[in-house]
What does this fold into?
Amino acid sequence: MSAGPPSAAVGGPPGGPPTGPPGGPPGPPIVVDEQRASDFVSLFRLDGKRVIVVGGYGGIGEVTTRLFAECGAELVIAGRSAEKAQALAEELAGQGQVAKGARVDISSRESVRELVENSTRELGGLDVLVNLAGIDIEAPAEKFEEEAWRSVLEINLSGAFWLSQAAGEAMIDAGRGGRIIHYSTTRSIAGARRGFAAYAASKAGLNGLIRQLATEWGKHRITVNGVAPGFVPTGLVREAAADDRFVAMMIGRIPFGRFGEPVELAGATLFLASPAASFVTGQVLFVDGGVSASS
It folds into this structure.
């Protein structure tokens, strides 16, 4: 016997007001898109979704940006380099895709708010924020300089919060829900013998921020998640990847026996941004070939 079509609203009896947890106030109605439930191909499409990708022209960022564009997203590509962001945006626009470039300094709350306000106005709204921006300064913990410590935390943790705050406010005001995805790291859950004190602390804090915002904004249908790469020889780790001994040691620690590829991170990010992940929130997805599982 068929169970029938899904209800148009979750949270209350048919024809009646929505209800919240027992003894609590009424919860907001949650609209279920029945077309999405049966159109499986669309589960991994972003057609018409308005997306900001911060750090969208870097090694993993550029692949993510291109994948999102191929899947129908309308994009603002942002980062410290307006030239790099604009160059990629112009290339995508020349291929018929909607893409704009912008500069942002995520350590500055004012710069972040300007980015989100301008992007929301230019795109006509904001559905997804992807934040790949991050820095790593390494030094022995006993010798870590104050300026270096603050720089790492301002970008990796405070910057992630300023982005979340501005995007979250825009999404809440629009009342359409949304997706926020931050890049974390395997270093957020495991120590290392190298000088990752600031980097590890900032990313562990980011994991906690992801869980908090997911809990706080669930009532607005805003999902907040993270992607945690293992070793991918690009961006921050390119110099380390040139050290043969380090490479051999790292491969020996990875159950898959190889490094990750940018497209594998981009695919995980696409999943979290897509309708397929509509009930996934507060999670950090480790894309690391099994390193975190075996540590």
In short: The radius of gyration is 20 Å. The chain has a mean pLDDT of 87. The chain has nine helices and nine strands. Residues 160 and 278 are 22 Å apart (CA to CA).
